[in-house]
Amino acid sequence: MSEPEKKIPKNIKTEVDIALHHFPELEGIPIEFKFKKNIKKSVMQAQPTWGGLLKPKNKRSYKILISEKFKISGEEFKTLDVPRDVLIGWIGHELGHVLDYQQRGNLNLIGFGIRYVLLKEFIKKAERAADSFAVSRGMSDYILKTKRFILNHSEIDEVYKDRIKQYYLSPDEIMEMVKEQDSIKDGNLL
What we know:
It contains 6 helices and 5 strands. It is of the alpha+beta class. The chain has one domain.
């Protein structure tokens, strides 16, 4: 039986491959990366496929939806036009969600989806977990570039920036995580 493959549009294959390299535990997990006209409230979205939702963890499949465009101060920009490292960071964050989903049982995953839709506090927990998974897999530079791109881009809508500040790890929190990881690697427990 052949390895399940990733479905990746050619125009983002390099960026997806770089991000996937940081998640070796997702090798063999079918993930389809797909452009979509518009995604409400975000640029990308990771989710299990309906068909994979009731299968055992090792048989699940996922899709990562990527908005073709996003708005900055009412003006639309193509997602592909963002700097390469920013795109890799966004993809890495979504792969963090996939890794989180892979660790959950089926009922837990269904409950996760319901709580995500209904509870703001749960959104924060889930988004920070996805950032943490990406950072702990060596993607801190990419994640930081993505955060800084969003937060420091004066043209980006304040509503989107506020959502990022409210639900996701801040650049300072990411730097703190990296410091902790480096201390542990060096054998210096804090």
